[in-house]
Design a protein that fits this description.
31% of the residues lie in helices and 26% in strands. By secondary structure, the protein is an alpha/beta fold.
Length: 270
Amino acid sequence: MWDQVQETVQFIQSKFNTVPEYGIILGSGLGNFTEDIIIEYSIPYSEIPNFPVSTVVGHQGKLIFGKVGGKNVVAMQGRFHYYEGYSMQEVTFPVRVMKYLGIQKLIVSNASGGVNPDYEIGGIILIKDHINFTPEHPLRGKNDERFGPRFVNMSEPYSLKMIAKAKEIAAANAIKVQDGIYFGLQGPTFETLAEYNMVYRMGADCVGMSTVPEVIVARHMSLETFGLSVITDIGRDGFLETISHEEVLEAAKMAEPKVRLLIKNLIEGY
């Protein structure tokens, strides 16, 4: 893994060598944040050595370098998922690459199903914690101390300071945000009503198929991390609406302007 990461980093640096401060992973329906980036260089995943290629509709598959509010950023326009058939090491490989390109902070976004009775479709959730129920752990196997310690402190997976700053930005712009605990499952099926009820009873507020592995690996490498979720469907006691991937993308698209404003201002002001 170490050699592959360094090979990929060297390849990217041979094409574009500005050091980014922020890494951004744009989830389902949120890829248009790239319009807020003053783009200086982009490269398709298919041209990057050792990189997987995204296979999900709504994930365009480019690594984009540029500036937001004068700060250097690198954005993943499309992420990878365990359910696509990749190993957890492959899913999280880009996070390791971004770390060695120079990022100090990671911002992740996703679309999720809401189980909290106070949530509504289109709601913006600031992830304050997560529950990992994916069937494979991204740090399973021999630990390479060059990346981080064997046993990772997960007492603050999502930066409390970044959450507080995001709340300030939301209040200043009349954007409603809520706290939430994210429950990570494998997918790719949407959850059954029984599974939604399980998620709620286990103490989570929303559920999805990404983010958790990336955040674990980010914390393994001591990256300060911020997570944000858009509620795209609702499942709770006695109620489960039908949902398709197209509807998820549409719901995420409705919330996208507010999400973009939050992320842009967070990068500029934090």
